[in-house]
Amino acid sequence: MVRRGTRAAGGKRTARTDVAGSGRRLRIGRLLLVIALVLTGTKLILVQGFDAQQLSAAAARQRTTSDSIPAERGSFTDRSGNVLAFSSEARQLYATPRRLAEEQDKAHAEDPSEPTSDQYKREIARFITQTLGDRVREQDVLAALFADTTYTTIGPLIEPALARTITEKYPQIGQEYRATREYPAGENGANVLGGARWSQDARKIQGRLGLESSLDKLLAGTDGKKVSDTAMGSDLVIPGTERELEPAIPGSDVELTLDSDLQYMVQNKLSDYARKTGARSASAAVLDAHTGEVYALANDESFDPNAPAWGPDGLGNPAVTNPFEPGSVNKVITAAGAIEDGLVRPETVLQVPGKIKVADRTVGDAWAHGTIPLTFTGVLGKSSNVGTLMTAQRLGEDRFNDLVHKFGLGETTGIGLPGESAGFVPAREDWSGSTFANLPIGQGLSMTVLQMAGMYQAIANDGVRVPPRVIAAQTGPDGVRVPRPRPEGVRVVSPETARTVRDMMRAVVQDAPQQQGTGKAAALDGYQISGKTGTAQQIDPDCKCYSNDTYWITFTGIVPSDNPRFVVALMLDAPGGGASAAPLFHDVAAYLTQRYKIPLSPAPAPVQTLQVR
């Protein structure tokens, strides 16, 4: 007999032993099951509790996409409120044809009263065509909706209101934001305004040239934020799912000091005159005599910022970026300094020879003559280089250099236009003996048309130069207009000196027998006009010396001189046939007096003695 609990012959376990082993395995299995349930419960608690928000956010990110809401770009207006640039919103309709078909077929299967996808697409196409009229053909809309694609655009850019009409009735049709920049005046003022374009990467209008570029942040505003649901496994937005999170803040509107009508007139007159005289280029500036505000800033070439493509011609703004040697208009510095320091009076007679030697350089007048008795007024009126250098030597190099900088030369005006040049004035320590043979007569230094206008603005404004400005004010998204502060003025000479020099320069446009000035063509019937002609030799690139047949021709004048309202500065680059800028000044001055209803001068300017007999 074999005992229980012992091994039987052959080493096999007894029945008792098998039962015990099975019990242990059962207990271990139960323990493992309990542990698994505990772990699963713990994970469930973590997922549904502690990790729920994070996981939910991750899931949301997978089925939604965030995007910016472009802010409306601010506009430009001129001083009278005429709009020069504004942004126009548009919308691009789009659809997801495959998804639309799947959803509509599913809806039809669930409810046979619902149209099939083909019927629904034809219904949508009819409505879009009826809404947009002749701007789109029904067959083109059908072709888009029946395209075997995940995304397609429909029709041209349209107004937001029309797009909303369509997408509200058919949410399966989406709309994408677009914006265009409109310039109602075309080329008028484009050198100042510049241009802006839609950037697909930034999904907004961005400034590319001129004030559109330099004021881009001010105009652009602050974009908002939105989220949209996207189709599974793609970044395509499901139409009708957009939600706004943060509204966009519009950009500021900018009011310019420009008079768009005057700008148009000056720009066209300048262009016509440049062609007539054969000038390579031409620029002009019109400033308010007292505030320095820029009423017009023009070049003979411009561009249309509305055009699909720009340039390369006419994109810049040479009136502020291209300096030139001004010639005799620079003689106002010597005149102002000599009168201010009491070295001469207008009637002081100078015995002016035909030539003068300064260091190693001999300088003559534009016309041949022996020694002649010119009044100091005559030195300006006849634009005598010799008489000017005689007076400048009495003034002295240091005093002259001080006045050059007080008149604003050698530094930018701070007007805020891109690429502004400071021109060139040689540093005082770099002057040679012959430098002072050039600077007083407007050679050996350079300036822009805007700087040249600023010099004469100081004379027109009783000796105070106010740096020019082109931005009058800005209006923020809150609707509050904030004027730009007027730049602080610089006292150049006394009021008495400025008025004296102004009166002397009336002789430039004088046309009296034997007492003619160099700019009589600038005279304007009924008004006293002060001004100064200029002719500056250009550098011959072959010999690196001054040319005898290529010149910059300039004229700067004050309208009217007895009660200054405007300063007009003109430059012609290498015109042919001995052309003068004085006739062009006359035309601009005539327009100014009519447009602004400037009263006639109480009396004609008295005839001044230029050369003593």
From TrEMBL:
Occurrences of domain Penicillin-binding protein dimerisation (ranges): 69-227
Chief location of this protein within or outside the cell: membrane
UniProt-annotated stretches for the region Disordered: 99-118, 224-243
Database matches in Pfam families: PBP_dimer (PF03717), Transpeptidase (PF00905)
Keyword set includes Transmembrane helix: yes
Compositional bias annotation for Basic and acidic residues: 99-111
UniProt keyword list: Membrane, Transmembrane, Transmembrane helix
Domain Penicillin-binding protein transpeptidase: 283-588
TM helices/strands, residue ranges: 31-50
Localization, UniProt: Membrane
Keyword Transmembrane among UniProt keywords: yes
Database matches in PANTHER family: PEPTIDOGLYCAN D,D-TRANSPEPTIDASE, PEPTIDOGLYCAN D,D-TRANSPEPTIDASE FTSI
Family of the protein in this entry: Belongs to the transpeptidase family.
Protein name: Penicillin-binding protein 2
